[in-house]
Amino acid sequence: MIATWQRASRSRPSNLTAVKTRQPTSLDDALTALAEDPEATLLAGGTDLMVSVNYHALRPSSVIGIRRVPELQEWDGQFIGAGVTYSRMERGPIAALAQAARTVGSPQIRNAGTLGGNLGTASPAGDALPVLAALDAEIVLRSATGERVIPWDEFIVGPKQNTRRPDEIILGTRLPYQIPPGQGFAKIGTRSAMVIAVVSCCVFRDEDGRTTIALGSVGPTPVRPRRAEAMISAERAPSQSALAELQRLVSEEVSPITDHRSTAAYRRHASGVIARRLVERILGR
Amino acid sequence: MTRFTVNGTEHTADPVGPESLLTTLRDRLGLYGSKNACEQGECGSCSVILDGELVCSCLVMTADTDGSTIVTVEGLADGDTLHRVQQVMVDGSGVQCGFCTPGIVVAAAHLFDSRPDPSEEDIREALAGNICRCTGYGAIVRALEALSGDGQ
Predict the structure, then answer these.
(1) ipTM, 2 decimals?
(2) Which residues of A touch B106 (CB under 8 A)?
(3) Which of A131, A180, A239, B80 suits A156 as a labelling partner, its CA being 20 to 30 A distant?
(4) Predicted structure pTM score
(5) How far is A123 from chain B (nearest CA, A)?
(6) Would strands A41-43 and A62-65 be described as parallel, antiparallel, or unpaired?
(7) Residue A252: Cβ within 10 Å count
(8) CA distance B147 to B112
(9) β-bridge mates for residue A162, sequence order
(10) What is the DSSP string of A67-104?
């Protein structure tokens, strides 16, 4: 799903050796395999990894296929396993996550791509990531020697950079508090399917007005506009001028760049607009 | 060695490194129905059904399909009897150059085999990941609509 890469040469690879592959069917077996071979590439849905393989950017010699690990498929209340696909998120109980999943790729991509893959790739445009950021999600990592649970912003630390150690598997995400009923997700792109976000935004707002906002594709990692959140959280019934101020603050707090998909100026403008629209939608306006 | 079942027949394949299922189907098994176009999951012309799920075979690593069951476009017809999706595509002229047709047929067959009466919107949604370079979407959707609701 990396639309901009130039097509690589079609010549057959000169190295004809088979890739060493393991297909563990339990988390313990997966962790043992990874402990023995920390250089191995973890493969789940393949929607990012295989693009790199097909375009000769990556040639793993050792692969651990983890899509059969049942522990990664769990979705138990506040815990979502890394192997949960976008198709499952689309049918799941969290409306904003379902809306985000619905915007990912196509049915083919949503049937394969996983939450753990979105975290592992850590693209600024990862569609599930603003939802996790707005929920203050924690990332659960497991190795043969133990478990680490870290806040999302200590896991995603830059564009396509995360703090997973080579011996760790992303187990899933833990959502630390009761999910507010007021929620929404929106994404701007050139089509409603098969599109990488120009801007994406997720908003949660509870009965007391406490509002969290996270935006994707407008910074190196998901952006939480803290001043905008604080301002709108203090407004129990926001006036038109408060909503206008929210829009202004969000636009001020994002740090977008200009690239082949859009301009920094458009992204900055659109960030404020979609954050405001989502808050208005939650308020029923 | 990777062992899997394709269209009801067990196969043993010897994939080169991390090659895609699409490459294995075409270059090792001689199943040329799944088309190779974008190799990044954008176009849907390589769509197959892997363990019951519609996926892009270009994004599946063959080495990770040991024990899997795969259905390609070649596996939809029953002998000389076309799958009903194939038949309505013929009857309704839902084909122009034909390059995207196998992927569209697989995606549509998966849709109609999993839900009986999709709306026009459902059909368009289900085919959102299948690009027709002739842009012949209207004819494709109209051809498929013959299978749902009143058309049945």
Answers:
(1) 0.95
(2) none
(3) A180
(4) 0.93
(5) 16
(6) parallel
(7) 14
(8) 8
(9) A156
(10) TT-GGGG-EETTEEETT-BHHHHHTSS-HHHHHHHHTS
CA distances in angstroms from A183 to A103, A240, A268, A276, listed in the order given: 16, 20, 22, 13
Taking the C-alpha atoms of residue A184 and residue B151, their distance in angstroms, rounded to an integer, is 37
- Residue A237 distance to chain B (closest CA, Å): 37
With an 8 Å Cβ cutoff, are A47 and B14 in contact?
Answer: no
Tokens representing A158 are 């830059």
Determine whether the interchain pair B54/A59 forms a contact, defined as Cβ–Cβ distance below 8 Å.
Answer: no
**What is the residue type of A10?**
R
pLDDT tens readout for residues A125-154: 999 999 999 999 999 999 999 999 999 999
- Measured CA to CA, the distance from residue A161 to residue A123 in angstroms comes to 8
H/E run at residue B71: strand B69-71
Could you tell me the sign of the dihedral formed by the alpha carbons of B15, B74, A51, A144, in that order? Answer: negative
Helix (H, G, I), strand (E, B) or coil at B37: coil
CB contact (8 A) between residue A63 and residue B42: no
What confidence tens digit (pLDDT) does each residue in A198-240 have? Answer: 999 999 999 999 999 999 999 999 999 999 999 999 999 999 9
Look at phi and psi of residue B34 and say left if phi exceeds 0, alpha if psi is from -120 to 50, else beta. Answer: beta
The two beta strands, B2-6 and B69-71, are parallel
| A115 vs A145: CA distance, rounded Å | 23
3-state secondary structure of B69: strand
Contact A112 B58 (CB under 8 A): no
- Express each pLDDT in A23-34 by its tens digit: 999 999 999 999
User: Which of A70, A87, A115, A96 minimizes the C-alpha distance to A183?
Assistant: A96
Question: Rounded to whole angstroms, how far apart are CA atoms B109 and B123?
Answer: 11
Q: What is the DSSP letter of B25?
A: I
Question: A63 is written with which tokens?
Answer: 């692969």
